[in-house]
Design brief:
alpha/beta, TIM Barrel, eight-stranded parallel barrel, 11 helices, 10 strands, about 20% strand, globular
């Protein structure tokens, strides 16, 4: 079922989670172990991230270095199929520009359609570590907007081979990312919203936000979106801060702020256990305020840490 239909049919705020595929060579059981404790809250959907290739250099005989492509977390599509089969829950794979040609994207979307997957999250994706900026594949997409357009065209039965006759249209519900604190590459919020609206106009049907710790920024973002003519559901993304390291890494990696009041509480903590307790309390208060505001869904970036998410969900749902 399309996520927009689930949201439309629900009289209350829904619950959803995002997970990482396991590292290559690890069992899918780790995925089940992370989802099982959260099933009592009836997740409306489970997002499964996609991790593109990385490059490493291996020393070979003669002293020369060979550039080798690896993927540390493969299996997104298979995990989505397994989740839908095991839990009867909608699984939403991330579809990214990086590492794909347009034809490879088309073929991947055909596979998803055959598996009965109705929803996708379309993202440009990050640059790989060895590149200073995002570099698209030859004949690939440079921007998330172009990816949304390709999926929308397939939904209208338009494939890359324009000589195809009576091609069966796909029926994907397309989600995109939104940034309450602005995408770090956008020069300003006005520019960021311009491109977000272009994605919605091209066929995106819902937005999931980057994590944030200050609800005011989410509410301001929604207000700006509505004033810009963006009227699709905007799902807030939440992360439970769980370690001292994350106080530094989350703002650095995701370009987000930690509110002063939250930071002052975190500074008092002596170890990661206390950090987690404060992080859970903060997320509970965030969640309750968002539910009171009748947001369509609370989306938790669990990354496999289900215990903290369960502690929050117990107080909210």
């Amino acid at each position: 079922m399309k996520l927009t239909k689930k949201i439309e049919n629900s009289k209350k705020t829904l619950f959803s989670i995002e997970i990482l595929p396991p590292l290559k060579g690890k069992s899918i059981q780790s995925i089940y172990d992370g989802i099982d404790p959260l099933m009592e809250f009836k997740p409306a959907f489970v997002d499964v991230t996609y991790h593109r290739e990385e490059y490493i250099y291996k020393k070979r005989e003669g002293g020369y270095l060979e550039k080798v492509s690896i993927r540390k977390r493969p299996g997104t599509v298979g995990i989505c199929a397994a989740i839908m089969n095991k839990y009867d829950v909608e699984a939403v794979p991330h579809i990214i520009c990086g590492g794909f040609t347009r034809e490879e994207t088309e073929n991947a979307l055909i596979d998803l359609q055959f598996l009965g997957i109705d929803n996708v999250l379309a993202l440009r994706g990050d640059s790989i570590k060895t590149e200073p900026a995002f570099v698209p594949e030859p004949n690939g997409h440079a921007y998330g907007l172009d990816l949304v357009k390709q999926i929308s065209e397939m939904n209208r039965g338009m494939y890359l081979d324009d000589e195809m006759k009576e091609a069966a249209p796909t029926n994907f519900c397309i989600g995109v990312a939104g940034y309450p604190e602005k995408h770090f590459e956008a020069p300003n919020m006005t520019s960021d919203l311009k491109y977000l609206k272009a994605k919605v106009d091209a066929g995106a049907e819902y937005i999931v936000t980057q994590m944030f710790f200050d609800n005011k920024k989410y509410f301001e973002f929604v207000d700006l979106c509505r004033k810009s003519g963006i009227n699709v559901p905007i799902i807030p993304g939440l992360k439970i801060l769980g370690s001292k390291k994350q106080i530094v890494t989350l703002p650095k990696i995701f370009h987000i702020d930690i509110p002063q009041a939250f930071y002052e509480e975190l500074e008092k903590c002596k170890d990661d256990k206390q950090i987690r307790e404060v992080g859970i309390r903060w997320c509970i208060e965030q969640s309750k305020e968002l539910v009171k505001a009748n947001v369509p869904c609370l989306h938790f970036y669990t990354m496999g840490a289900s215990e903290a998410t369960k502690a929050v969900a117990k107080e909210v749902f």
